[in-house]
Amino acid sequence: MTTPTSPFWSRSVHADRRPLLLARARTFAAWRKWFAQMDFLEVDTAVLQVSPGNEAHIGAFSTVYESPQARTPLYLHSSPEFACKKLLAAGEERIFSLAHVFRNGERSPLHHPEFTMLEWYRAGEDYDSLIDDAAQLCALAAQAAGGGAFSHRGRTCDPFAPPERVTVCEAFARFARLDLKGTLRADGDNDRETLASMAQAIGLRVSADDTWSDLFSKILSDKVEPELGAGRLTILDEYPASEAALARRNAQRPEVSERFEIYACGVEIANAFGELTDPVEQRARLEAEMAKMARIYGRRYPIDEDFLAALAQMPQASGIALGADRVVMLATGAGSVENVIWTPLP
Asked: Is the per-residue pLDDT at 5 higher than 90?
């Protein structure tokens, strides 16, 4: 199914889209039932925040709160993450949020400026527990859509099959034929020159101002991601510590982090962390992300001081964000996230 050129409210367009939207509704109902059975509490966090989040490549929508005393800049959140972690600090232990979130400058078959994110947290539990959670939720989405395989652009993935789990370094070796591990450093000052040579050797364009992180992203998106989630879900684990600003480092291998992403049909559908709870280290990482944003895009967003204060009280936890629209798109074979969003932008 392609994105229609007529408005979504056209009766013929709506009739075509309605089966997909009903599958979305069944999916969300099944997810909420599953979370209730697992003793999770649904939380409804505020959309307006003092910071939209501090990831270098995520753009935000800004607004201004006008009180009688002052004009205060605010942002639409790009994730409920900061608010959810404050609730963990307050004493909640198992929470989930099915929330609309906002990211500026993103629109494609896989992106919409306003989309739905399913995010959940387990206090006191290892991030490995999130893998089984996510697999079950993907299976529920497939059942809600009729019980078939996930599909996208000619690729298929069985959401009922046990996921495969590979590290980032293993995936780079398998699909890009290069030794990423040899470029990683425990202090995060990774070997840019070696990675640049490797990238050129596999036919990628390297610019003089490309950082190690820039090269990592190019190789990941061009050579690795299209191969992931083929036949079954892929858990891409142990991201370099430099690419996981909100995750704690691996205790045995500090050059990598407790971060994994989940892929189906070459599409990234989830991002999970063993959560960082050190406010001093977290501040340094967020400031580094904002310095990167300023270098690349000429802007930066404020750091949520209330979030850092809460982080000092937050228990050890694991958390994951799943792109709800993308999962429904894959489960229904819709082709574009806009086909499974009730009221997409014109």
From this structure: no
